[in-house]
């Protein structure tokens, strides 16, 4: 039983496996081969770029850059901007390392100050506090996840975007946990930057992610090299998206991502969310009565993705996860989930973090009933 879909969704829809296999066998490298397969590779990539852009409400698909991961996309968006000492960046208390580490690097190396929004489970991001900060005129960017990977809390992303627009501040949306889970539309969000991972809610393979950059924003490169275009020039062309897509494209990843996006569109975001959410509700109802359990995140499950983090008495989350895995073959993830900022915010640092269950489209009611039965037994295994 696999309950680690917030890390990566698994299994993938059959069409994703088929598409990846077909691409690996029949296509090669876009913009680099003078052959029928080369031309087809280039046009396939263009089609994928257009479809993925449309999925996110991006009108001009050249503003969508394919990158090896959401982490790389966040680093490019954050470190690729021009910063001056004493600029302020705001983030939530629930950020993943992929946001918080590059921002902390900016602070260490370029003198940028970062501030973290106050948090309560029912108000994971404080909009009143944000507006007071924006009024100072020092904030250059707000960088926030749409949904937290540790607690599943959904942040008020649209409202944050409206405030950023009102005060002329840049807004970076990390959609790693929301793409394929919640509607993500860069226009509705007023996003200047939006990043996503291909291998989570979009059901693509690992090794592919993306970055949207609003027209007019100048971004420096993090890596330079061949793009398949402007081959005769010594320097990078500066044009989107090729300026940032250096090295041979991961066409397998791109086509796999596109197949996943098509599958999500066909299944429907609402149907996916309804199914996963009903599993979350059933799971939480069943485990809430276990003596000593402490659940994290909003009690209003409408404001949560299908992620549930908890601790149980003083048992080690890692040991619980190992016990579940070794005794029953159940996959979860325990510890800090690459998000110590989040664990400090919810109070599980100091401590060993939480054990996290994250449900996916392939999980079933029967699996939830089976695993909650195992968890009910847990207090009797106090040595775990
Ligand atoms: C909120 C959030 N942001 C960014 C990332 C980074 O995604 P990737 O590991 O695919 O680069 C993750 C991955 O778990 C995440 O949960």
Structural summary, described in words:
By secondary structure, the chain is α/β, with parallel strands linked by helices. It has 2 domains: 14-266, 3-Layer(aba) Sandwich (Aspartate Aminotransferase, domain 2); 268-375, Aspartate Aminotransferase, domain 1. It is 39% helix and 13% strand. It has 12 helices and 11 strands. It has helices at residues 14-26, 36-55, 70-79, 97-110, 127-135, 157-167, 186-189, 251-267, 269-287, 317-328, 340-346, 365-377, and strands at residues 64-67, 88-91, 113-116, 139-145, 170-174, 193-197, 209-213, 293-295, 307-312, 333-335, 354-358. The strands form 2 sheets. It has a 7-stranded mixed β-sheet with strand order 1-7-6-5-4-2-3, with helices on both faces. Helix 6 (157-167) links the parallel strand 4 (139-145) and strand 5 (170-174). It is globular. The model has no long low-confidence stretch (mean pLDDT 96). Bound molecules: pyridoxal-5'-phosphate. Pyridoxal-5'-phosphate binds next to helix 3.
What attributes does this structure have?
384 residues, alpha/beta, 2 domains, seven-stranded mixed β-sheet, four-stranded antiparallel β-sheet
Q: In a nutshell, what does this entry contain?
A:
By secondary structure, the chain is an alpha/beta fold.
